[in-house]
Every structure is written in C-alpha cells, then in structure tokens.
Design a protein that fits this description.
By secondary structure, the protein is an alpha+beta fold. 50% of the residues lie in helices and 10% in strands. The mean pLDDT is 90.
C-alpha cells in the first residue's frame, strides 16, 4: 500500500471534451453514463464537468471505506448546499460534532419500539387512501406515483402532528412542500445561482411556499411544547442528548421536521410506486404476496406484530429497493488528500456514490436486471457480501428513518393486496427520471 501522496496513482478516466467534459452525457442520461463508466473503468473513475474533476465510486469495498471505515475523512460538504435552501441544518445535511449531537438526540425517536406508537395513524391513513380507490374500479387509469405521493405525505404529516393539524393545514403544507421541493431541484440545475431576493417568478413562488411552511410549523412546535402528544413531534420535543441533556431549539426542530417531510415521504412514495410496477409485471410474485397476506392476516387489518410474519412481502420490498433505490445517488467531499486502494483522491474532490450502479453490477449480483425476491431469503443474504446492498446508505450516516420507511411500505403493500391487484395501464416501457429521488418518467399509469 502506498504511503506517500506522490506515490499514488490517479483514478482511471475516460477521454472527454475540453471545458464541458461529460456534461452532454450527464444531461442526457446520468445513470446510463455512470453504468458505462463503471463497466469501462471499474469501481473508481474520475471525470470532468466544466473543467472540474469529480469521482464516481461504486465498488462495495471502496464505498464502505468512504461511508464507514474512514467516514471522518469524507464529509457532505458542498454537495448539500442546495439542500440547505429548504432543509437548513437538517440531519442529512450536517457533519462533525453538530451531526453527532443531532443524531444522538433524534435516534431514540426512530427506534422500532417508539414507532409502534404511530403505527395506528399510518394504518388509518392507508385505509383512507385505499377507500378512495373505489372510484377506479371501473378500470379508469390513475397515476400510482401521484397516489403514493399523496399517501406518504399524508402519513408523514399526520404522524408528525397527530390531531393538532387541520385538513386545511395538511393541504397547505402539502402544496407548499411540493413547490419548495420542485424549486430545490430546479436550483440545483442552475449554473448561475442568483440570490433568493432577486425577483424571479420561481423565487417569488418559493419564498411564499417557505413562508407558508414556517407559518404552520413554528406554531405547531410551540403548541407541541405546551401540550406534548404521542406523535413524532412529541418524540422530537422530548428527545435529549444523552451526554449533555440538551434538546433542540425551535429553529433546529423546524429544520428536522422539514427534512423528515422530504426524506420521509418522497423516498417511500417512489419505492412503493416501483413496487406496484414490478409486482404487476411479475404475476407469480403477486400471487405469493396475496397468498401470504391472506394467510397471515385472514382478512383483518394488520398490526405491527404482523409485519415480522410477512417475510415474502419484505423480500419483495428489499428487491424493489435493489432495482430502483429511491436514494439512488449521494455524494461526499474529501477533507484532505486521501488514498483509496493506491488511488489518489485530492482534497476537495466531490465523490458520487450510487447504489443504483452497485445494485445492477453483474460482478456482485447474478442476472442483476431480473426481479427476484428470492435473493433476500435469509440463506441467500448470508451467502453474499453484505456491503453490495445499501439502499439506505451505510455507516454512521445510514438513514435514520429506515425502520419507519420499511414499516410504511410493508403495511401499504399488505393492505393494498388485501383489496386490489393493480395492473399497468399500458405495455409501454417505463423509463427512469432521476431527480431528487428515482422517479418513473411520465408517471406510473395503472388500473384496477
């Protein structure tokens, strides 16, 4: 292993155009470009965009080194600056001592036992959404992406604020958040970053949306401190750093709440959308889900205790997350010059890590494009390197809401297939639309 920076070799690199580098490929098909770079150059590769050098890392051992073994040397850094426009100092955007304190405060609220207190709220929200599907029983096509987005947004708002929030506030929060989230994506794609006070129409619309968010969230925090409830807000208010005894300020509480809105509904919505897509295309899988749900639930509403018995349904979810990880891309910045298996990673380099590419790599997965929930039987899991699968990230910064997301997806699929068996409304291929999460291009039209 090399010991001096001067002894290290540069990562492999493709030929690219002067100045613009690989911007045309990145703009046309980012994930396709990442797949091609990995096939041609291996699990670490550098490439240029506007004369700046970036790295792509997909080899599981390298990913583990960055996210886990040597995570202190790789921070989120400038990769999350656009996100701060909306999310402030939310946990997924933080580093160092501040991140550690926030993680210690928040972690107990997302423990499985704590989440049991909000499971009934989740179940009621799912029932309400499924009841609304009766209007589609005449085979009227509907967009499953929209349905799952509405469901998961309703779940996260109602589990966060319990009975303290009105239906009008739920609708206002949902609309404001959609506007703010779309703006955040748009802003990340702009080469020229104008200040938010500059009177662009998008700036004006975004600023109004953020005012609505803040005007609803801050009073709810104040009320929650005076009258704590058994909801996520109550858990966050009661959460304290075990070492210092400190809780969160209102401003930090606001940032964490908005971050949970973003991370807690869009990722689950896209995972569920892709789940319905894959299940509808694999009728033998659908039959096994229906059989398992009938056997375990016997036509009754599920409870939290039932989830551990829905083993095949859970395998299906894990395989969906392999093929279509909603959090398909994240980034780290090297704090100082770093060595990775003899390669030099210069200080300040932005490194892209993409579960999507690792999950589709035939070096680690047999027949990786095939949807096969049997990959996630306990026996098959035990036979492979666990580092090849990381839909929720890895290491200390692994998604804090992974248990909540899994519970939400298990309950939604079980309750859906008790009543319906959605089919694709068209035989046309569904393309990928990688935005803040991995979306289907053109939505996901289905029918009952």
């Amino acid at each position: 292993m090399a010991t001096n920076i001067s002894d290290l070799k540069p990562a492999p690199a493709p030929q690219s155009r002067p100045v613009i580098g690989m911007i045309p490929e990145m703009t046309k098909d980012m994930l396709g470009m990442f797949m091609d770079l990995t096939k041609q150059h291996g699990g670490i590769v550098q490439f240029k965009l506007l004369n700046k050098t970036y790295m792509l890392v997909t080899k599981p051992e390298y990913v583990k080194h960055i996210l886990q073994s040597n995570h202190h040397s790789y921070i989120r850094g400038r990769s999350v600056e656009t996100g701060r426009v909306l999310l402030g100092n939310g946990l997924p955007l933080s580093d160092g001592d501040f991140w550690l304190q926030q993680r210690r405060i928040l972690q107990p609220a997302f423990h499985r036992q704590k989440l049991s207190t909000i499971s009934e709220t989740i179940i009621k929200a799912i029932q309400t959404q499924l009841d609304s599907w009766d209007k589609y029983k005449n085979h009227q096509p509907f967009d499953m992406e929209d349905e799952m987005t509405q469901l998961t947004l309703s779940i996260i708002i109602k589990t966060m604020f319990s009975a303290k929030i009105t239906d009008e506030q739920v609708q206002a929060l949902g609309n404001a958040f959609r506007i703010a989230s779309a703006f955040m994506l748009w802003k990340s794609q702009q080469f020229v970053q104008l200040p938010l006070w500059f009177p662009l129409p998008k700036h004006i619309q975004y600023n109004k949306a953020v005012k609505i968010l803040n005007d609803i969230v801050y009073p709810l925090i104040e009320n929650g401190r005076k009258n704590p409830q058994d909801d996520l807000l109550g858990m966050l208010i009661n959460a304290k750093d075990a070492e210092t005894g400190l809780g969160m300020s209102d401003a930090q509480m606001r940032d964490e709440i908005v971050t949970i809105f973003f991370a807690g509904h869009e990722t689950s919505a896209m995972a569920l959308t892709w789940a319905f897509y894959l299940i509808s295309k694999n009728k033998h899988v659908e039959s096994k889900i229906v059989g398992e749900v009938d056997q375990v639930l016997n036509r009754r509403t599920p409870t939290l205790d039932d989830l551990s018995k829905l083993t095949y349904t859970t395998q299906v979810i894990n395989e969906v997350l392999r093929l279509y990880p909603p959090a398909y891309l994240f980034a780290r910045e090297a704090v100082t010059d770093q060595e990775l298996d003899g390669y030099l990673i210069p200080a300040g380099t932005l490194i892209f890590i993409t579960p999507y590419v690792t999950h589709h790599d035939s070096n680690y997965w047999h027949d990786p494009e095939t949807f096969d929930p049997e990959r996630f039987t306990p026996e098959n899991i035990s036979r492979r390197n666990k580092d090849i699968y990381y839909p929720f990230g890895a290491g200390p910064h692994i998604c804090i809401g992974n248990h909540l997301a899994m519970m939400e997806m298990q309950l939604t699929l079980a309750m859906s297939y008790q009543r319906f068996q959605p089919d694709l409304a068209t035989d046309s291929a569904i393309g990928l639309k990688p935005e803040a999460t991995l979306r289907p291009k053109g939505g996901m039209m289905m029918k009952l």
